[in-house]
Amino acid sequence: MTATPSEAPHLQPSATQPQAAPSALAVDGLSLSFGGVTALNGVSFTVAVGEIRAVIGPNGAGKSSLLNAVSGLYRPDSGRVWLGGHSFAAVPTDRLAALGVSRTFQNLALFKGLSVLDNVAAGLTHRLRAGVLAQVIGLPTARRERADAYDRAEALLAFLHLEDARDRPVGTLPYGVQKRVELARALVARPRLLLLDEPMAGMTLTEKQELTGCIRVARDDLGATIVLIEHDIGVVMGLSDRIAVLDYGRLIGDGTPEAIRNNQAVIDAYLGVAHDLEAGEGI
Amino acid sequence: MTDLALDKPVPPNAAGPNRTAPTARRGMVRPSPTALGVGLLLAVAFGLLPLVGSEYLFDAILTPFLALALAGLGLNILTGYAGQVSLGSAAFMAVGAYAAFNLSLRLPELPFVVDILLAGLVAAAVGLVFGLPSLRLRGFYLAVSTLAAQFFVQWVFNKVGWFSNNSPSGIVTVPPLSVAGLALDGSVGRYLFGLSVVSVVTLVVWRLVDSPTGRALAALRDHETAARVIGLPVLRLKLLAFAVSSFIIGVAGVLWAFAYLRTVEPAGFNLDRSFQILFIVIIGGLASLRGAFLGAALIVVFPLALARLGETLLGGLFDSGVLEMSQRIVLGLLIIAFLIAEPAGLSALLDRLWHRIAGRLTALCSRLCPRSGSNRSV
Amino acid sequence: MDWSFFTEVLVGGLLSGVMYSLVAIGFVLIYKTSGVLNFAQGALLLFAALTFVSLTERGLPFWAGIALTLAAMTAIGALIERTVLRPLVNQPPITLFMATLGVSYVIEGAAQLLWGTQVHGLDLGIDDLPLEIGGVLISTFDLFAAAVAGAMVAGLTLFFRYTRIGLGFRAVADDPLAALAVGLSLDRIWTAVWTASGVVALVAGLLWGARLGVQFSLSLVVLKALPVLVLGGFDSIAGAIVGGLIVGAVEKLAEVYAGPLVGGGIEGWIAYVAALGFLLIRPAGLFGAKPVERV
Ligand SMILES: Nc1ncnc2c1ncn2[C@@H]1O[C@H](COP(=O)(O)OP(=O)(O)O)[C@@H](O)[C@H]1O
Ligand SMILES: [Mg+2]
């Protein structure tokens, strides 16, 4: 991870990265609106390397918009995003993978017509060096590269218990399984930063527990820094190192689970309103 | 779960499923049913048919079938695999046909095989130009923009005399087909020539769609945003799809002109032809190589069958006007029926039929001879 | 440059552009409510004109012919909606488009099988005398067509603003799920929309038929409407009108001033190329604000 503030400023002299410790991701004063709707309103926070960082907030709070801005799918009206030692006004989506960032989507974004294995292996396609012709002719380098990618994909299938679905077209699988396939696709490239938008939505309790374990392993053993949007407060409290709370596009709380639990603004704006969140899942 | 060794190569006997299929591990490779089927088809097409087929079979059915199947294959790369709808396929057929005509006319010293390749490349280049809008447009906007190619190209061959060697309204008669000194201008020769070209191109296309690049095209089709996020070069892939697709459709145009009709005019590459190719792909099955062949077979055979049927049933009432109209109606109904009942096309239909037959056969075999039955079923 | 000639060409172009708008509006109606680019619009137009002409040729009075044709168009519209589009609901838009392509083949075939393939003249009783306005010659027929188109747009606007069905239509166009949730009947609205587009097809068919003669090529006017839609956006009636005017003007001006340089006949593609060029500069079209894809 090279996103240290000491290297970054020459790219953007006027802005200084908000935090001293090396961070995997920082957003600074992000604002974004759609027509009259303000999705993000001057949001600033950092994600430290190796951290599991949760982003919570009621529906429509701007959580997905935040991840979309970080991955360059939405272009913020103002503010900057720091990624991998660079500062961007608009993150170039095409370079995300090269920057070591992967993500999953709130609504499944799989390649429906492809098999599970192909979906996961697609996460490595950007690394392939062989040209089309080499692939078509079947030159040894192309074959080796490909076999290697598929071996890694298989290993991830094993990790996420997806072996049985390996050759099924992904569109035919149950929702929870598809969610895991998407996670596998994001993980296969060994990202430095992994952005997860409600990866557990619609999952059973057991599935959630399993996935929680997977996310931990992704951080502990694969070295990914993780930003996690999740509605299940129980999961969030147990899993994350720090939590950012959004409400109406504003950051209304930021700190350890303990601090958030006791943060009056958060309780008023969020936990208080949707009290049933404590009990389980809030949609 | 924590024992994760993503970086180490997977040992061949790891607990998880291995990538080598069980049959291949046994040392003696048993050919798959698909390979057997394709081999058999090729044997019949190359070996048997030329001996027994009639001139009518070659000239009216098989040769146009080959050309259209190839065009379908080309469009399938763009539409079926990469998800970009084109309504201008006939334009690229025309480009291929006219390019090959001019090459053989103006550079007669070039071998015809080189002409074909160059004609394909010219079509690919034109396809690239008309594929540029795909970088910014999607869906209907893109589909409509491909009509620009359709109308512009047709107009150019009509109006610019150079392309047709100054023949009125662009009608050209191509030189007789001969490859490496071998005259192939008879029905069988032209058929065999078409068959060879189609076989080679199909092999290459199969390799392509099976490659990581092919998978990347499908990824682009299924979810462009996700494809971008995982770092696929979306713009390059789109242009590649347009170029490869146009190349193949251009070669199909060469076959259309040199192997099938031998006299072509721009009006023969009109919008109806583009739709015909689109229909081939829909009826046959999107993103299926077989589909292009099945669709083309249906599109070539059904008008002939309808004509026969109409004659038998209605006799004199069934004149050419009525025939044309009923063909239009039936074709339209076919499209609608396939889209509603079998969106994956003939290819999927065949699959299902095959599974049912295979299932029955297996059941039958195991009942007749309980012990050896399982060996015989395919 | 001869400015009065230029003006004449321009005005002629604008007026014929109105005829394009007329066809394009039929598309927009369907697209807005069902998200379908209805390629069969041209075939419907052909069918309407052919039916009307054949009926009046068989001695039916004008208004009876209109009424009968209208009934037929309504029935066909409802039939398409029920038998083709409804089973395909939730399919990707491009599948629906291809289905309407199939529909257009069926209708074209059926129309000609039913009424024959010969060319019919269609006389609406409007002389096509050139009228001089401010030194510029304008075709009366074009003026009449423009007036009809204008009246139709006004009528549609009133319909959508003040009738229950019309309001329902707008609700569906904005958000089908929400419309469903508040108890609007999608069935009735869709049927109404297909009927409305049948009416538009009839009007456009009569005007175009009077201009070109009623024959197969009438269904090809659909190809004139597509660049208009690309320019104006598939979902905007205002876009269809302005787009039509632009396409009409560009086409005529190009035909007159650029055509002779390149051998003529460029009206077949110039509109497409112009629309494409425009889109490359402004991908959202004339009026559209490009929506940000939600993920
Ligand atoms: N692509 C978009 N177009 C228009 N409005 C959007 C878009 N994406 C998000 N919004 C709006 O921005 C606000 C925040 O949405 P979102 O970020 O999805 O919230 P969350 O993920 O916290 O539920 C909502 O009001 C939503 O309607
Ligand atoms: Mg969200």
TrEMBL record, chain C:
It is found in: Cell membrane. CDD domains: TM_PBP1_LivH_like. GO terms for molecular function: transmembrane transporter activity. It holds the Pfam family BPD_transp_2. GO terms for biological process: amino acid transport. The chain crosses the membrane at residues 6-29, 36-56, 62-80, 92-115, 135-160, 192-214, 226-249, 269-289. Keywords: Amino-acid transport, Cell membrane, Membrane, Transmembrane, Transmembrane helix, Transport. GO terms for cellular component: plasma membrane. It is a multi-pass membrane protein. Belongs to the binding-protein-dependent transport system permease family. LivHM subfamily. This is Branched-chain amino acid ABC transporter permease.
